[in-house]
Design goal:
Largest sheet: 5 strands, parallel
Family: Belongs to the DnaA family.
Number of strands: 8
CATH architecture of the largest domain: 3-Layer(aba) Sandwich
Main location: cytoplasm
Shape: globular
Protein name: Chromosomal replication initiator protein DnaA
Oligomer: single chain
Strand content: 5-15%
CATH superfamily of the largest domain: P-loop containing nucleotide triphosphate hydrolases
GO cellular component, one term: plasma membrane
Number of domains: 4
Number of helices: 23
Subunit structure: Oligomerizes as a right-handed, spiral filament on DNA at oriC.
Bound molecules: adenosine-5'-diphosphate, magnesium ion
Length: 481
């Protein structure tokens, strides 16, 4: 078998390439559905696993369909050096809920790196003992999504800067000017994707491995509170402070959570002082994160701040093309164009629509056409078709706050009418494509600066006052449905 596979590989890549990269590859063993092959150095291992890993797996599977994974490791026929796990496999197992590995025979570095099991998934995947790894997963470790890699990220004008910054940090963490890296942008534009990509990249490095802890701000808070409850805040602090790279996703969650913010602030300062890299994401820029402590906002803005802008039509097309190709499904360009026109809000929805099309096509064995698209996605498309008018908004909001509809355009300034009016302006801005002056005109010929002020006032209030925010959210949802 092995000889045949090698033969095929040699025939495919040619003698020179084979001799340069693959000749020293040895079969280390088989364990159930997993094959392990060895290469003598890390460099060779990396090279082979990125260039030939997929091909090798495919060849093995062709020989023996029962084989599910091919592990490429560093070693000389020694069966299982734990440190040399192939990136592909690390990804797979981290994503797959992470059963403890059978092969954690040796710790690569004498083992003090892990602390008490609190470090991120990538690290655990790379070097922990099985039990530690399980522990790490159960607690802090948010699993990294195996699809969220740099390779899987489609770059275009709206995200190229953020992408470049992320790449840079993945290559050289803690470079001056890039610490902290602050990524921000609206929902579904790729913040989490880029963060995972950085984490994958760093944990896949075999030379100079670093420990990465990735978690959502929510998880951070949850862990912090759990630590307080179990009187283990010291351990909690220690564990966070022992990582090389700390990544906190969706930091806006900490708004109004003062104690957690405080804790994060100290951790942040400590790590930066130690020359450790911090990566943070949020839905707004540091200066716009009202409700976050001023000193924290200041520090967050100190490194590199990168904005993920809303997608353009071109980017949406490229993303769809990439995802369709990845799924191995032929989707007519007309359909891609249609989707990119219709679903403009965020990439997640775009992807969801495409996935549904693909699933449908696979299930029924029918090609994807514009017609099937309409059929299969009609609920999604309908939601995106719906255009709320300013009049509808005014009516709904007036009803909700029990004021007269005419007060939407009246000159009255009493808080009881002025606030609902501001909410209506805010919603008009959010839910329609009208410009500020247009909106102003509909509200009794008010100036566009009045609308602007209303929008920022409502935004601010929503951040400060949860009940108010819920109210506005509710109105929004009512208007959208
Ligand atoms: P955010 O964290 O900003 O809300 P995510 O990173 O979760 O958004 O992205 C939402 C979905 O869209 C994910 O499945 C992600 O892979 C995908 N996505 C977003 N931007 C891109 C991109 N530029 N290329 C490929 N996929 C993307
Ligand atoms: Mg996210």
């Amino acid at each position: 078998q092995w000889a045949r596979i090698r033969g095929r590989l040699q025939a495919e890549v040619g003698d020179v390439e084979y001799r340069t990269w693959l000749r020293q590859m040895t079969l280390a063993g088989q364990d159930g559905d997993e094959i392990t092959v060895n290469l003598p150095t890390r460099f060779l291992r990396d090279w082979v696993s990125t260039r030939y890993g997929d091909r090798l797996s495919a060849l093995w599977q062709a020989e023996n369909p029962a084989i599910r994974r091919v592990d490429i490791r560093v070693g000389n026929a020694a069966p299982h050096p734990a440190a040399a796990e192939s990136p592909a496999v690390a990804r797979e197992s981290a994503a797959r809920d992470d059963m403890p590995r059978r092969d954690g025979l040796a710790r690569p570095d004498g083992g003090s790196q892990i602390g008490s099991g609190q470090i991120g998934p990538g690290v655990a995947a790379q070097s922990a003992w099985p039990d530690e790894r399980a522990e790490a997963r159960s607690d802090l470790a948010a699993p990294l999504d195996p699809r969220f890699t740099f390779e899987g990220f489609v770059v275009g004008k709206p995200n190229e800067f953020a992408y470049a910054c992320a790449r840079r940090v993945a290559e050289r963490p803690s470079s001056p000017g890039f610490n902290p890296l602050f990524l921000y942008g609206g929902v579904g534009l790729g913040k989490t994707h880029l963060m995972h990509a950085i984490a994958w990249e760093l944990t896949d490095r075999t030379s100079n491995p670093v420990s990465v802890a990735y978690m959502s701000a929510e998880k951070f808070m949850y862990r912090f509170i759990a630590a307080i409850r179990s009187q283990s805040t010291m351990e909690f602090k220690e564990s966070l402070r022992s990582v090389d790279v700390l990544m906190i996703d969706d930091l806006q969650f900490l708004i109004g959570k003062d104690n957690t913010q405080e804790e994060f602030f100290h951790t942040f300062n400590y790590l930066v002082e130690q020359g450790k890299q911090i990566v943070v994401s949020a839905d707004k820029s540091p200066s716009d994160l009202n409700g976050l402590e001023h000193r924290l906002r200041t520090r967050l803005g100190c490194g590199m701040v990168a904005d993920l802008h809303s997608t353009t039509y071109e980017l949406r097309i490229s993303i769809l093309e990439a995802k369709a190709a990845r799924a191995g499904v032929e989707v007519p360009i007309k359909v891609l164009e249609f989707l990119a026109h219709k679903i403009t809000s965020n990439v997640r929805e775009l992807e969801g629509a495409l996935n549904r099309l693909v699933a449908h096509a696979n299930l029924f064995g029918r090609p994807i056409t514009l017609e099937t698209t309409h059929e299969v996605l009609h609920d999604i498309l309908k939601a995106h078709d719906r255009r709320v008018t300013i009049e509808e908004i005014q009516k709904k909001v007036a009803e909700h706050y029990s004021i007269r509809l005419t007060d939407m355009s009246s000159a009255r300034r009493a808080r009881a009418v002025a606030r609902p009016r501001q909410v209506a302006m805010f919603l008009a801005k959010q839910l329609t494509s009208r410009s500020l002056p247009e909106i102003g005109r509909k509200f009794g010929n008010r100036d566009h600066t009045t609308v602007m002020h209303a929008v920022s006032r409502v935004t601010e209030l929503m951040e400060r006052d949860g009940t108010f925010a819920e109210d506005v959210e509710l109105l929004r949802r009512l208007l959208e449905s």
